[in-house]
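Sharing a chain and its predicted structure for anyone who wants a worked example. Both blocks are below, sequence first, tokens second.
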Amino acid sequence: MKNVPQPKEQARVLKAALAQLGLKLKHQDALAVVASMMGVRDWPTLSANFEAAEEKRQTAQKLLSRIDGPSDGDLFEALVTVDQTMSARIRVRAHSLEDAKRMFGPAACAQYPHGFELDEGNYRGPSDFYLGDSNDVENISEPDIESGCGDFSASATWRDERFSFRIDLSRDEGDCSDDDRRAKTTEIITVSFGEVNVQRTKRLEVYGDLDDYLSDVFDDGDYDDVFDELTAKLERKLKRQAK
């Protein structure tokens, strides 16, 4: 699902494309064609729809500015419904779950103010957005810690607006009765963007439960510098690949 370009821009592109074929089209006629393509009877109606959508977007942004928290708030994600046929995954930052729930509708409206193209030539106009299931809101900034069977392994995953983060812990000799040998653990830290990632592997000694260890280091902020370093390394890697 993607944003539909502004109708006047679509008309300009249409005129330019036809001109390359040796066909001349008046600007007003190009606007009428665009309106017909979007399922609207004429250009004045389409223009009015987009003006209403822009007013709605501005209203949504004003509402967001009143309830949006600082940039250091947690990142929440939910599936927001766009009428009864479409939905989009929207992310907002907020300091509480209740604030996030209030923000999803306005955030979706601000992100998709001018309607949608479901597939080639199949357009839908802007409409009201709402959070379909208020229980289906995920705080993706908060690490999701999972422990493997028998405390042989544990992992933690979370995300921000761009990157995914993961920590994997595995005991080298998880079934050993000797505490010192059982404590020897391999740690793999991964920061990824799509299929591109960077990793750091380190040897640790963890005498308690692995999931408790992860909870403690997150509470203490022990991984902050490591993830800042790996994130910067990943950004450099992405820039090199983009050249």
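Comments welcome. The chain has two domains: 2-135, 144-242.
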